[in-house]
Amino acid sequence: xxxxxxxxxxxxxxxxxxxxxxxxxxxxxxxxxxxxxxxxxxxxxxxxxxxxxxxxxxxxxxxxxxxxxxxxxxxxxxxxxxxxxxxxxxxxxxxxxxxxxxxxxxxxxxxxxxxxxxxxxxxxxxxxxxx
Length: 131
Prior knowledge:
Helices cover about 80% and strands about 0% of the residues. The protein is an all-alpha fold. It folds into two domains: about 10-90, no CATH class; about 90-130. The longest helix has about 40 residues, at about 95-130. The N and C termini lie far apart (about 65 Å).
């Protein structure tokens, strides 16, 4: 026989506490990304905040005033900063050429290192197989 009046108050309390902890985690991640102040390497986005805080997007949207509003404001500030950064970065042709040459050298170095590591890995696998 099923309980017609189940006592769910404790479960509701626990779920409310879990939601509060999740909200705090979201705000902490937002604060962290805001303090990093690096829109290129650490962008503020709803997806990134959800990933770092371990929550879903529907969770954010269920707390529009508490979570979405501060996130949207931070994204807006970040976008304004990105516009300023992109306006400042104008390169002359010679500096672009130098940058390209530098990047090509770096690619060649990394390719050589990759080749060496693959060779070392093959040698180690061979030694491991002989044991």
